[in-house]
Amino acid sequence: MNLSGKKIVVGISGGIAAYKCAELVRRLKDQQCEVKVVMTDSAKHFITPLTMQAVSGEPVSDSLLDPSAEAAMGHIEFAKWADLILIAPATSNIIAKMATGIADDLLTTLILATPAKVAIAPAMNQQMFAHPATQRNLKTLASDGMAIWGPGQGEQACGDIGKGRMLEPNELVEFCTSALKPSVQPLLGKVVTITAGPTREALDPVRFISNHSSGKMGYGLAEAAKKLGATVNLISGPVKINAPNGINLSHVNSAVEMRDEALRLATESDIFIGCAAVADYRAADIAEQKIKKQGDEMTLTLVKNPDIIAEVASLTRNRPYTVGFAAETQNVEQYALGKLKNKKLDMICANDVSQAGLGFNSDNNALTLFWHDEQISLPTSGKKELALTVVKAIASKLD
Ligand code: C5P
């Protein structure tokens, strides 16, 4: 039995598909897992707590403010008990509450309080599903790390035809099984150091030279490496995104600061990934006072920044497996292979930033991975998903 011994909370919100939950709980119990059911008030209009109690063999929980239920198992204890919380059906209303972090009943409170994986099986009228607000909320939930299973396409209880049907119980059981499969962690015990974001090269106390790098790809790589079991150091230039939990984050501004931090960490690392968009040049002198407006033209003298990744790749002792990035607007393969060789890298991930919607500042990217004797093209996908594929590809090359 694939789910044997697992603990699943089935959270039912108020949609017509709730009638399928009795079957869902039966099929989960067939897999010999423990199931507890939590219902919202509106769910009880569609299926009774008595039915759910009968199929789960456990009392149904529905209230946050019931002292006797809290005495049996407090809501925090309940949230910690679960290996998985599956909200099925997930109505547009509960999806909106989850996307904003509202916790006004037992189910929405458990969702905020649980360290477990949370999955939703959306079910609603096709027009409600297609509404920009629902789509926006689903995107938020996906970026918060929640799994979204379905919805399916077809005839709906209201007579409409379209996307919005809750997945069938057997399909949801399959999703639960793969979500709870022990994950393979190929980087367990490994240390990965990643540079991310832009650098800022000061000109005077108020001005700097920088670029549009958002840091999303580097942060995605950090999250992916963590997920695959690594201890992760992330050396980040100034960005507007939050770092994933559980990684060692160092904030830097200039390329020189980034180099110092990179060299400090590189020899303790098994893998070094240079994803930062490091400024090629910095001001020869940083003016102590704000530079005043002068004539119609002004000339800045810039000096070359250290090539951080080339320095790491040239380490003679404790050199990590070194991976670079190359953002190009033309001759992608030729330039990427040139950098792989000249910087003495083990691998380079190249992308064509001239393509609309890809690369810098975008949520999506497409990469080609080059080694000295091999290459793989990865199709366009979200940066997080792509990051996981890249880190898995790197892990597969380690001894
Ligand atoms: O030479 P280019 O900037 O195109 O090379 C890109 C790769 O080199 C990236 O991996 C980037 O993080 C790294 N790099 C660096 N230090 C620099 C310039 C680039 O580590 N000064």
TrEMBL record:
Record-annotated DNA/pantothenate metabolism flavoprotein C-terminal domain positions: 188-396
Region (Phosphopantothenate--cysteine ligase): 192-399
One Pfam assignment: DFP
Catalytic residues (positions): C158
Family annotation (InterPro entries): CoaB-like_sf, CoaBC, DNA/pantothenate-metab_flavo_C, Flavin_trans-like, Flavoprotein
Pathway given in the UniProt record: Cofactor biosynthesis; coenzyme A biosynthesis; CoA from (R)-pantothenate: step 3/5; Cofactor biosynthesis; coenzyme A biosynthesis; CoA from (R)-pantothenate: step 2/5
Positions with a binding annotation for CTP: G274, C275, A276, D280, K290, P306, D307, I308, I309, F325, K339, K343
The protein's Enzyme Commission number: 4.1.1.36, 6.3.2.5
Domain Flavoprotein: 6-178
Entry's Gene Ontology cellular component terms: phosphopantothenoylcysteine decarboxylase complex
One BP term from GO: coenzyme A biosynthetic process
Keywords recorded for this protein, A-Z: Decarboxylase, Flavoprotein, FMN, Ligase, Lyase, Magnesium, Metal-binding, Multifunctional enzyme
Cofactors demanded by this protein: FMN; Mg(2+)
Domain of life: Bacteria
One term of GO molecular function: phosphopantothenoylcysteine decarboxylase activity
Region (Phosphopantothenoylcysteine decarboxylase): 1-191
Known catalytic reactions: (R)-4'-phosphopantothenate + L-cysteine + CTP = N-[(R)-4-phosphopantothenoyl]-L-cysteine + CMP + diphosphate + H(+); N-[(R)-4-phosphopantothenoyl]-L-cysteine + H(+) = (R)-4'-phosphopantetheine + CO2
Membrane-traversing stretches: none
Cofactor note: Binds 1 FMN per subunit.
NCBIfam families named in the record: coaBC_dfp
Family assignment from sequence similarity: In the C-terminal section; belongs to the PPC synthetase family.
PANTHER family in the cross-refs: HOMO-OLIGOMERIC FLAVIN CONTAINING CYS DECARBOXYLASE FAMILY, PHOSPHOPANTOTHENOYLCYSTEINE DECARBOXYLASE
Task performed by this protein: Catalyzes two steps in the biosynthesis of coenzyme A. In the first step cysteine is conjugated to 4'-phosphopantothenate to form 4-phosphopantothenoylcysteine, in the latter compound is decarboxylated to form 4'-phosphopantotheine. Catalyzes two sequential steps in the biosynthesis of coenzyme A. In the first step cysteine is conjugated to 4'-phosphopantothenate to form 4-phosphopantothenoylcysteine. In the second step the latter compound is decarboxylated to form 4'-phosphopantotheine.
Protein name: Coenzyme A biosynthesis bifunctional protein CoaBC
Primary gene name: coaBC
